[in-house]
Every structure is written in C-alpha cells, then in structure tokens.
Amino acid sequence: MRIGDLKVVAIGGSLRERSFTYQALEYAAGLLSGLGCRVRVFDLRVMRLPFCNGDNQDPRLDYPAVGELRRSVGEAHALVLATPEYHGGLSGVLKNALDLLGAEQLEGKVAGSISVLGGTTDSNALNDVCRILRSCHSWVIPHHIAIGRPDKVFVDGRISDAGLRIRFEEFAQDLVRSAVRLCSPDRPAIESDGPPLNGSASAEFRCAGA
Ligand SMILES: Cc1cc2nc3c(=O)[nH]c(=O)nc-3n(C[C@H](O)[C@H](O)[C@H](O)COP(=O)(O)O)c2cc1C
What we know:
By secondary structure, the chain is α/β, with parallel strands linked by helices. The protein has one domain: Rossmann fold. Helices cover 36% and strands 17% of the residues. It contains 7 helices and 8 strands, in the order βαβαβααβαββαββα. The protein has helices at 20-34, 64-75, 92-99, 103-106, 124-135, 150-153, 162-182; strands at residues 7-12, 38-42, 78-84, 110-117, 139-140, 145-148, 154-155, 158-159. Helix 1 (20-34) packs across helix 7. The N and C termini lie close together (9 Å). The model is unreliable at 199-210 (pLDDT under 50). Flavin mononucleotide is lined by residues 14, 16, 19-21, 84-88, 116-119, 150.
C-alpha cells in the first residue's frame, strides 16, 4: 500500500466555536496530508447528527450526515479522534458519533487519539477512547497525545511547545506506518504448524475498507 492511497478520517468531539480540540485535530490532519495521506476532517460543529437510537441498522434518512459519516469511516484505513476531556472522560459529542458507528465501520481501522483538557495533562479521556476503539476491533497506535492547559499551548494558531510539535510528528508517522503495514491487501499469510487459525485473527485477516 502506498501512502498516497491511505484514507484518513479525523473527527473532533467539541462543539465550541474556538475549540482547542479542533486546533489540535487540524494540526494533526495537516501533518498527515503533508506525509501524502488523503485526509477528511469531520467537524461535528457543523454536521447535523442525531443521538444514537440504539439501532445501527437504521439508516437515519432524516439525517444525511449519518450516512456520510458511516460511509467515510467505512472507506477509511485510519482514524484520528480528538476529544476534550469532560468530567474525567471523553466528550458526549464524540461518544455519540462513535455510537452511530459500529464494528462494521470501525473494525480493522488504525486509530490514533488526541485529548485536550483544561487542567494538567492526564490520560483519562484517551483511555476512554482507546477502550471504545478496542471494543470495536480497531488497531490503536502506541502514540497518543494529551494536551493540558491548551490556552498556553496554542498561541496565535501555533503550537508554542517544540516538544509537543515533535510528538505530533511522531504521532502522524506512527499512524501512517501502522496503517501501511496493517491495511496492505498483500500482507503475508501467517504460517502455522499448529491448528488452523480462525476468526479475525486468521491469516486471511482483511482490513475493512482496504
Ligand atoms: C463539561 C466540562 C467538563 C470538563 N471537565 C474537565 C476535566 O475533567 N478535566 C479538565 O482538565 N478539564 C475539564 N474541562 C475543561 C476542558 O477540557 C477544556 O476547556 C478544553 O479546552 C475544552 O475543549 P475545547 O477547547 O475543544 O472545547 C471541562 C469542560 C467542560 C465544559
């Protein structure tokens, strides 16, 4: 798989107009585009998404954005999810968007997550996102980014902290490297002398959307 073939969907979980979460997401999206990926950013502030009604077979025809989200995530190889930390967890906005999706769209996707929080940096929201992605059988990359005190970090639309800029670059490179490896249609088969492998761990593992 060539980097130019990689489709990445980036979703932000804040509805705030001057959201730092979107500043972080756009920064990551810019780096991924710079590496050659095809990146689409979903801005939930302007999309009309309903609450999940518990029926993922429901096409929600009154809300065309649901079909668009499901289709784009289904076709993507990789995801970037960015969330503000709310009350020690991910935002309800991002959780609802993920609830409108399912394993049908998320299985096999390579995913990286970013959190932004008003206090000092922690991993609470990131751990939530990681657990959700794991339960939908996505591949979560080792690099993640938590940004505390974003008012000090984002200055005039720029990231003031050189160490954080490097972390973003490593994050983008890790996402691309992992997606190229895991989503290649020509991944080598797993040879085994033991009993046949089956299920999603089989040698025939298919990357959804590839
Ligand atoms: C309902 C709510 C809950 C929050 N809970 C936390 C929290 O638990 N920890 C924290 O450090 N900041 C918390 N914050 C602050 C936000 O994480 C912070 O303002 C962040 O920048 C918001 O993201 P945004 O700029 O993308 O809107 C909370 C903010 C709101 C509105």
